[in-house]
Every structure is written in C-alpha cells, then in structure tokens.
Fold:
Amino acid sequence: MTGPTVIATTCPYCGVGCGVDVRISKSGEEVALQNVSGSPEHPANHGRLCIKGSKLAQTQQSQSRLLSPVMDGEEVSWQQAISAVAQGLKHSIAEHGADSVAFYVSGQLLSEDYYVANKLLKGYIGSANIDTNSRLCMSSAVSGYKRAFGADAVPCCYEDLEQTDLLILTGSNAAWTHPVLYQRIERAKAIRPQMKVVVIDPRRTASCESGDLHLALKPGTDVALFNGLLAFLDQHNALDKAYIQAHTSGFESCLDKASDWSVATVAEYCDLAEADVLAFYRCFAASDRAVTAFCMGVNQSSSGTDKVNAIINCHLASGKIGRPGCGPFSLTGQPNAMGGREVGGLATMLAAHLEFQNPEHRDWLQGFWQSPAMAQKPGLTATELVSAMESGQIKALWIMGTNPLVSLPDRSRVERALNNCPLVVVSEVAASNDTLKYAHISLPARPWAEKDGTVTNSERRISRQRAVLPPTGQAKADWQIISQVAQAMGFNGFDYTSPAQIFVEHAQLTALHNQGSRALDLSALTELTEQQYQQLEPVQWPVNSNYPQGCKRLFTDGKFFTDNERARFIALEVREPKQRCSTDFPFVLNSGRIRDQWHTMTRTGNCAELMAHQHSPFVAMHPLDAADLGIEAGQLMVLSSALSNGKVILELQLTQDQRRGELYAPMHWNNEFCSHGSIAHLYRADCDPHSMQPELKHAAVNLSRADFGAYGLLLSRQPLAVPALQKLADYWLKIPLAEGVCYQLASVSDSPKWHQAMAALLPTEQQLASHGQALNCLALDQQRLSWALFTDPTGPIELPLDWLNTELGNQTCDSEALSALLRRSPRQSQGRQICSCFGIGEQAILAAISEGHDSIGKLGQQLGCGTGCGSCKAELSALIDSSARPSVDPDKIIIQEAV
Ligand SMILES: Nc1nc2c(c(=O)[nH]1)N[C@H]1C(S)=C(S)[C@@H](COP(=O)(O)OP(=O)(O)OC[C@H]3O[C@@H](n4cnc5c(=O)[nH]c(N)nc54)[C@H](O)[C@@H]3O)O[C@H]1N2
Ligand SMILES: Nc1nc2c(c(=O)[nH]1)N[C@H]1C(S)=C(S)[C@@H](COP(=O)(O)OP(=O)(O)OC[C@H]3O[C@@H](n4cnc5c(=O)[nH]c(N)nc54)[C@H](O)[C@@H]3O)O[C@H]1N2
Ligand code: SF4
Ligand SMILES: [Mo]
Structure:
C-alpha cells in the first residue's frame, strides 16, 4: 500500500468549474478514491466546494454502472458493438443520405469528446445534424451574444461578480445551482456592504437571501422590464452617450421600441410594485458598475434571445461592459457547455467559431480536416431532431451523455420518435436510465473519475479534468468510442491515441486564419507537448500572442466581432410565452433544480445523503391557491396539460415563495425513481425562434387530487426491480437510504387483495404484523430488520426516514424498536435534513434556535450547519424567521428592504 496521491482535477457538475483535489490510495492493482476537497489554488473556487462537489467520492459507485457493450439486450464484445454501429451508420447513409444520421450530445462531454464527434459528423459523414443538450440550456445566450457582439463571447469573469456595485441575478437561483459563485458574491457583499444585489425571479428562492431587492415578476416578462430600464436610463440622463457613439450601432431604433415602456406600464405588465421597479432602475442608473448574471429563467423561454439582448442593450447603453465589475454574464449550467460551444457541438455552428454562413469558413475547415465531405448548412436542433425521427427522416441516432427522455419537452413525443428510429445508439455511464430503454446498442462510457481531457467554465476558463481511477469494466472514453467507430467506417483522421492530440488539433483550428478575427483563439496552445497538456494550468481564452497567459475580460477596447467592430443594439418587441393558461389549464408551471440533485439523478439519486434534503418529486403552490381548491400539503396531485393527462403525480408543497397562480416542480425525477415523476410530459416543444431553445419554464397546467384507494410504505434492505414495483402498485416512488431503500406506494383499489399482495412480499417466517384499519408488518433476518411494510387507506404514509434508516441499520432490533415500528411511532427523528454537509436536521436546528442560537452565525457555531458549502443558509434563515414570527400574513409577498 502506497501513501495517498493527490490528483488535481475539475468538478463534473455545474459550470462554475471548481478545481478538485482527489486523494487516491493504491494497493497493488487496486486504486481507491479516498476523498475530495476543493483545490486551494484553482481560480474558480479557491478551495471551496458545494455539497455536490464535496460528495463526489460517495457517488462513484461501480454497481450501478454499464460495464460492457449491449446489443438488443445481450452483452457483446467491443469489436462487435463498434462494427455494428459503424455498419448501421454506413447503411443509413447509403440508403437515405448523410442527413439521415444524427448525434445528440451533451455539455457534460469533455471538449476532446465533443471535438471528435463534431468532426466525424460534420466533416466526414457530411451532415450537421449534431446537436447538444446545451440547446436546452444556453443556446439563447449564444444567440443573444452573437446578435450583439458578432461572436459567442462571454465578456466577464468571476471577479466581476465581486467587484461590481450592483449585481443583478435574473432567472438564476445561484445559491443552489452555482453555489460556489454565490458564496463568492456573499463574501464580497459582506466586505463591501454598499454592493447591492437585486434578484429577479417569479419565485422567492434561496438566492434572495443576500438580496437587497427581490422582483417577483410575472414569468416571461423580462423583456418589458429591461426595455423599461433602457427608457429610464434615457429619460434620467444615465446613458453613456460617448460609448454609444464610439462603439455601437442601432441605438435609436432600439430606444424607440423601448420608449413605449414607463415605470408604470412595466410595473403593471410585470405585476410588480412601481416602487420596486423604480428602486431597481434608480440603482442601475446610479451604479458606476453593474453585472447582470443570468441563467435558465432567461434562456429557457420562447423569447430567450430577446431577453438576453434586452439585458445587453442596457449594459451597452450605459457603458457597463468591458470594465471590471461590469457586463452581461451568462452563467453556464453544465461543466462543459462552454467547451461544446467552442468545438461546434451545436447544429447551428461549424467548429471553433467558424460559421456555416461563410463559404470560406466551410472550405477552411474541410481543408484543415482534409475530410471527404463537409456539411453545407446548419443541421437540425434538438427538438427538430425529435420531429425528424417521428416523421422518419432520421434513421440513426447516437445519443451521448444525456438523458433526453427526461430532459426534452413533450416526453410522449420523444418516446414515439425513438420508437420510430431504426437505430438508436446510446453511450452511457449508468447501467439503467430512461433513455437506455430505447437503445438498440448501448456503449459503456467512462465517467468523471476515469476521464481525461479539458472543460471550459462560465468565465471561459479551460481546466484539465484528470482521470483519478482506472476504467471500470470495459468502459472507454467517449473520444475513443467515437474514433473507433469512425475508423471502422473507413475514415482517416481519427487515429488519436491521447486527448492531448485532440486538444492540440482543436487549438490549431481556433488559430486557423484567425489573426484576431474570431474571439476564440488558442494559438498559444497549439504546440503543447503531451507533458505540457498534462500540466496545463487553468487558463481563460483567448490565449494568444496578445494574451499568452489568457485573458480575463473581453471588449476592454470597445471593439466587437461584427463587420464594423461595433456592438449591435437590438430593437425588441415584447412577446408572451407560448403555452398560455386557460380555464382548463389555469396554472403556469415553472420548473428547475433543487439543491442536492443533479439533472436526471443518475449521479446523485442513489446517494442517500443527497436524497435527504428533498426525497420526493413535488409541486409547490401558494397556500391561498390551495385553500381555494380545498387541497392540502402532502397530498398527491395529478398534473395535466393539453399534452398529457395522468402521467405526472407530485406531492403538494405549500409555500408563500410562489406567486399566486403559479406552480414550481423539479425537473429531476424520472422513471428510475418514480412511476409518475417526469414533468417532461407537460411541456410543449415551443422554441425561441432565434436559438431554438425550448420554453421549459412555462407550461399551462391543471392539477387535481390523485384518486388512490390505498397507500403503502415499504422498507427493504435491497432495492426492488422496477417491473416488480409496477406490478405491485399504480404509483411508486423510490427513496434510497444509507441502509436500504424506502418505497412510497399507492394503489387505485383498496381491496384487501392489495394489502395481502403487499404483505406477501415479505418472507412469512419471522413476520410480525399488527392489523387495524391499516396494516403494519415487519420481517426480521436474525434479529435484524430486513423488511417493513405499512399500508393505509387514508393517505400517503409519512414516517421519518432517518428513523427508518436507523432501525434498518441496527444489528439487533429489540422489542422496544419493534413495537415502535408496529405502532408507527418514531423513536427519534432529526426531521428533514437541512444541512447536507454536516447532516443536520430540522429538529436540532429548531431546538438550538429556541435555546437562543437565533442567527445563522450562532447556529453555525453551535451545530456547524451553514458553515460548509453554505447552500442551506436560506433555509436556516427561514427556520429562524418561522420561530420568531409563527404567524405570517399569507397574502403578503415578502420583499426585503428596498435598495
Ligand atoms: N443543484 C443543481 N445545480 C445545478 C444543476 C442541477 O441539476 N442541480 N444543473 C446545472 C445546469 S445544467 C444549469 S442549466 C443550471 C441552471 O441554473 P438556474 O437557472 O439557476 O436554475 P433553475 O432552477 O433551472 O432556474 C432558475 C430560476 O429561473 C426562474 N424563472 C422561471 N421563469 C422565469 C422568468 O420568466 N424570468 C425570470 N427572471 N426567472 C424565471 C425560476 O423560478 C428559477 O428559480 O444549474 C446548474 N447547477
Ligand atoms: N422541465 C425542464 N427540463 C429541463 C430543464 C429545466 O429546467 N426544466 N433544464 C434543461 C437543461 S438546462 C439541461 S442541461 C438538461 C439536462 O438534462 P440531461 O443532459 O438529459 O441530464 P443528465 O442527467 O445530466 O444526463 C446525462 C446523462 O449522461 C450520463 N453520463 C454522465 N457522464 C457521462 C460521460 O462522461 N459520458 C457519457 N457518454 N455519458 C455520461 C449520465 O449517466 C446521464 O444519463 O435538462 C434540460 N431539461
Ligand atoms: S459549485 Fe459547481 S463546480 Fe463547484 S463544487 Fe459545486 S457543483 Fe461542482
Ligand atoms: Mo443546463
């Protein structure tokens, strides 16, 4: 056994791109991951990690991995699989043309994987039908930046968030989704309390915690709000006329459109108080420096690109760009969404910021690749690919690193489309997910800990991701899989033996005929040796002769990438969201993330510690709306939209953080974890006309109480297979615990037969049962609890999960424990887990508050909670508030002291 080795790599979750130090130990051939910590020297995080990053060691389980290639349900060799994929693609091209083939890739691939996939499809197969899940994520930011700046170039860096006078967080719940950045903002504000933070979000979120002002605007009205700001700047002598004159074009017509909006009309249209709108506008006008950081509340909209340009217009008009503490800052979601934009992972771009629209660019690219073909026009975007599969135009689809059944809108249509596609290949890490069920060929890919390459974060910083563990099973790196298929198709140009070779090729392409004409320029990295690549330090592009050490901030000289080097103002009309409410579907359904889960849960869902904060799929509603409908918290609700009825069932949560008439549901749950948790059924594939990004924050829905006759809670040491669950219950929800699994179950019929069928699950020997109106059964295995089953005809059974988990873990279940279980009378419970870093539950926190530890600081000193990643601070605050003021006027929307 050798001592631990530390490898510096990058976190695979969000676009903050934190540096992670991984400690591994080696014993012979065995390599084990010991722990992870934030890299102190990484400029994105300076040693900090959020809860997802700090639990990385716990989420690298090999038991849930796809370990070998599978074809039509049978394990096959790599050779067979590669040859089948190559033959399948060749057949499709020969029979139906190059455009019958499509790749659907992911912002979670490394740049090297992405580069090779793009090269194969655009340069060798000759089709541009390669799109990425980043289409659902940041394509509106891309279109907005391109319209304004002539290039997809993010002007800002993270330091700008700290150096600004006014930080506007719009459509971003960074406290939960970009936690390390949010902590940087909090700290900056603590040091300079005069720094203002304005949060623009229809919901009151954890990110409002540090906010001076929260504008809970009506969903989809952002363009009006920022148009109004532009008009206000004009009317209050707050324009930077010299900047407009010297560096921009199109201002007059833009202002002309915006001038329709006054503070009063904005307040009415956005459903905000005039005083709040005015406070925001005044603050922007008075601040020398302002950053607008935006995320999915802006991008995932049928007017997403316009929202982005409405923001950029205000920054250009006030000269708040290209200076420290200034700029419109798109926060990227996925770890390598930016890298995908660089190598050309979107169907609407070529590669390395080369454009389809320019014939010279196509020729340069083909010359550089020396490839037999070249896509001549943009390809199909994500939702268009679905339609094209449905209509039979796409005959072969290769999905890599994304789970579209769960993440694309209109799930039933995606199901039909995949059913209609003759060849579906899926490269995956997980053994099972909703998309793999549609795969004819599944290919095992290496996950984060086994992968080697580069990623680019939100501030254009390229960091190395280094393999820390040897590959598990037969898994291969995505770039290897793609290259081997390309070679099997008979293509030269894919004989890579390391990611360094691919990176250097990509860097050379960015330098090709560039000379400052394209923002993305890695010309200083074109000669990297294998060893230099291994040692590459995090660096922000461009990296060229002007900026050999990289470049923090773009547009400092006021020059842009348009023909006349001027930034463009865009004149904007206000448009309504597409899926409109009606009497049948009166509620707006907003969707997004929760603190401790990552996307479709393939990485975080089986980690009990990450499940403890929020263990069931829920729909959040304002208490007064619930009172009107006569429904109560904890009930199971059926959600329906014009597309879908009966497929989505969520637990009702009541909160005054919601506006009236609007609901919020997490995007994460899927058929691996719940029979009815996938909200993708409810969203229509309405897209922004410029970016083709779907409107994933605005569905029109209705909800009604689910009509179940009986409910169950099943506790088991081992997980049950999904088909068994389907046979057992009409509704099921899986909640992984540290010592086993808990299932929530419900059945339409409450016949005694159901209760019997349930009881039959448990081994009869050693079974203990108590009957009343409800059934409580336990089974022991050598005095240790192995199964428990509770049923009830009246409603979902809520028992403290930490208590159940403790009883499952007890080596001997004594008579007191048994009797408590049979009576469903919890012996102890911490309540819901609030602080995941230190595993602190609600009860302990409430007790500490009642003992006088009534501030976040005091709670931290007493219990530790809130002193790790800090993402629970908003919830700590809410608990402190609720203890201090037990009754709050439910109709009052809480706004913090106005700026
Ligand atoms: N914990 C966690 N963190 C993550 C992820 C994860 O899965 N889990 N995923 C990563 C990825 S890929 C992404 S893209 C990011 C997303 O990061 P965010 O965009 O911060 O997260 P979301 O929860 O999707 O949505 C943000 C907010 O937009 C608001 N919103 C909805 N409609 C509107 C509107 O019309 N206007 C405005 N102004 N706001 C609106 C919603 O209420 C929501 O609070 O998170 C990244 N980080
Ligand atoms: N309603 C609603 N829908 C949304 C959103 C929303 O806010 N609301 N947000 C959208 C956004 S912003 C995003 S980014 C998407 C995310 O949605 P998806 O990309 O579909 O979600 P993930 O769970 O991240 O899927 C990644 C898959 O790749 C696998 N994987 C992980 N690492 C690797 C690897 O290295 N190689 C390969 N081949 N596979 C790997 C994982 O196991 C997982 O199955 O969801 C979108 N959908
Ligand atoms: S903030 Fe993002 S990159 Fe950093 S540790 Fe958390 S999930 Fe990972
Ligand atoms: Mo995303």
